[in-house]
Amino acid sequence: MNDSHPDALSPGIGDASFSFEAASSTVPLISVRDLAIHYPVGGGLFTKGMVVRAAEGIDLDIPRGAFYGLVGESGSGKTTLGRALLKATPITRGSIHFDDGEVSYELAELGKAELKDYRKRAQLIFQDPYAALSPRMTVRDIIAEPLEVMKITKTRAETDERVREIAAKCRLNLEHLRRFPHAFSGGQRQRISIARALVANPRFVVADEAVAALDVSIQADVLNLLKTLQEDLGLTLLFISHDLSVVAHTCDHVAVMYLGRLVESAPTRRLFAGPRHPYTKALLSAIPSLDPDHHSKAQKLTGEIPSPANPPPGCKFHTRCPYAVEICKTEEPPLEQTPDHHMVKCHRWKELLYVS
Ligand code: SF4
To answer: Atom 6 of ligand 1 has which residue's CA nearest to it?
Structure first.
């Protein structure tokens, strides 16, 4: 694994720029403590009575104004965590606290009126721009719907003004507002989805694999737009992705999830320059590179992620970790802070510091 400079790690979209440690505040907008999300499953691939542990023991602070990346393979629990932060899925244990400076909410204790208010403040950008937009509604009506449902605007003229304003910010023009979604490309549809998510002027946005369905060239365009909007509107954005190279382009901080646990988090530059957890190292190593030597140095991640309904004991990564020792099989490692500001969940992170 190349541990020297992050620019050496990845071509493609990750080459465009590394924003690294950006100007977000240190005051958290979202604070998560000891969060667990379990749900019962039965039938299909699962034995009746089994419990899926989608998230377990999550501690996380998302600073106000951050472009925060959440990365992991399919089945790592990142989408479930994102939905919990929007209060779109029930939690089993722990707490999620939201504080944007105007209001302060403990999500588990929201009353009806507070929940209504929270829905305005926290929004979701969907992954699939084709499925997310009703084919029977004009772009104007799609973007206006949250304003009307949440009764944010009082007159049609007021709604139209707000729709035009956010459409312009999302690089849609007046002519676009009269058309139906089928007339647009994937990138344009995702800009419509973004406008719809932002029209109610939220403070927190979860973008769940928001560019995964787009071509690479369009991904860069939509990512740049998201970054511009996040900075201009002072948003806090949680960007969920399975692709670390996409996260490198825009995020100022990255957290890595594996089987329902946060295994590492750090400012983006530090994470890319010196990952501390073997899983993060393997994910970084899997990013394609134009360096002909990279392939031989790459750490291959073998095997499948275990089932969250039947997680292994000890460190959840031990079944795939090339550095696993006896203790890894029996004791779950604590989340520890390293001197260079990573949070890492690995028994051996100190020993592995200089292993490349
Ligand atoms: Fe690998 Fe052990 Fe660290 Fe888990 S605790 S990541 S198995 S070395």
So the answer is: 346
* Centroid of ligand 1 to alpha carbon of 277 (angstroms): 8
| Contact (CB, 8 A) for 233 and 27 | no
- Tens of pLDDT along 185-226? 888 999 999 999 999 999 999 999 888 878 888 888 899 999
Quick: pLDDT tens for 297-347. 556 677 778 888 889 999 999 999 999 999 999 999 999 999 999 999 999
Spans in the chain with pLDDT lower than 70: 1-25, 43-47, 288-300, 356
Domain boundaries defined on the chain:
28-269
Rounded to an integer, what distance in angstroms lies between the CA atom of residue 67 and that of residue 356? 29
> Taking a C-beta distance cutoff of 8 angstroms, is the pair 122, 82 a contact?
no
- Residue by residue, DSSP assigns 71-96 as E--TTSSHHHHHHHHTT-S--SEEEE
* CA gap 125, 141 in Å, rounded: 17
Tokens 């590394």 sit at which residue? 18
CB 28 within 8 A of CB 311: no
Q: What is the pLDDT of residue 296?
A: 52
Q: How far is the CA of 137 from the centre of ligand 1 (A)?
A: 51
Q: How far is CA 204 from CA 67, 116, 152, 311, in A?
A: 10, 15, 17, 32
CA distances to 76, 173, 259, 275 from 243, rounded to whole Å, are 13, 31, 16, 15
Q: Which of 336, 347, 352 to mutate to test the pocket of ligand 1 (most atoms within 8 A of CB)?
A: 347
Which of 247, 292, 299 minimizes the C-alpha distance to 278?
Answer: 299
Which two three-digit tokens encode residue 40?
């019962």
State the fold for domain 28-269: Rossmann fold (3.40.50)
pLDDT at 105: 97
Ligand 1 pocket, mutate which of 261, 344, 345, 346 (most atoms under 8 A from CB): 346
